[in-house]
Design goal:
Length: about 230
């Protein structure tokens, strides 16, 4: 009895239903196996607390629990939104930005990753409205670029020109619309934006809208102290 109460609490925390609903499912024999082989309706149970996933965010999806229209959470199993602790995106990407987006229910990790003190590098591929002029890399690397409406200059950022109207920008901070605003400050305009890396993580073979859980090694790399500024 004690064990099935514990199991019901555990499964309810993973979003499989209220404790009462899960207790009924257990009674009805829908939960089988044990330990790592636990199954619900024959399907392996979701990973326990401390889950981190990486998604290739598609364009047109908003990083919000509350807004209208397609939300990044619509791309996840509805059960994930019933997890306790809460499952949420690690920071946000603009609705039109694509690429690497992490989610977790690990509050301490979330705060570490989105803290202004985190200097984890994030890399963006920008498609620009106008050809690059040649001064942008030095401006972004200078540590003196002040964005409109702000006082504190941006930390030095690394720009690699990848085409006449295309560039790869690596930042170690994450201000609101930062990439778009940096290019605007340089007299250009970002037409499309894709985040290709978040720390050591890329999207690898994930198609837009697809996601996967991180491996233990990937989790360890995210939790390791970040070298460099910060
Ligand atoms: N910078 C932006 O301008 N937009 C994003 O979505 C991420 C970084």
């Amino acid at each position: 009895m004690k064990d099935s109460l514990k199991l019901a609490k555990y499964l309810a925390g993973l979003g499989y239903g209220s404790r009462k609903e899960v207790a009924i499912a257990i009674r009805d024999g829908r939960v089988t196996g044990e330990g790592e082989n636990l199954r619900f309706d024959g399907e392996p149970i979701d990973p326990p607390q401390g889950l981190v996933i990486v998604m290739n965010k598609p364009a047109g999806y908003t990083c919000s629990h509350a807004d209208q229209g397609p939300l990044v959470y619509d791309l996840l199993p509805p059960r994930f939104l019933k997890r306790d602790p809460k499952f949420s995106s690690v920071g946000r990407l603009d609705a039109e930005t694509t690429g690497v987006l992490l989610f977790t229910d690990d509050g301490a990790l979330l705060h570490k990753l989105i803290s202004p003190k985190s200097s984890l590098p994030k890399t963006y591929e920008a498609t620009l409205a106008r050809p690059l002029e040649g001064h942008e890399a030095a401006l972004f690397a200078s540590g003196t670029l002040v964005l409109r409406g702000e006082e504190k200059p941006c930390l030095p950022a690394q720009l690699e020109v990848t085409g006449e109207r295309a560039a790869r920008l690596t930042l170690t901070e994450g201000r609101y619309h930062q990439v778009r605003r940096m290019f605007a400050a340089a007299g250009n305009h970002v037409e499309a934006l894709h985040r290709s890396r978040f720390g050591a993580l890329g999207i690898d073979g994930l198609k837009p809208g697809e996601w996967r859980a991180l491996t233990a090694a990937e989790m360890a790399s995210l939790k390791a102290p970040v070298q460099g500024q910060g």
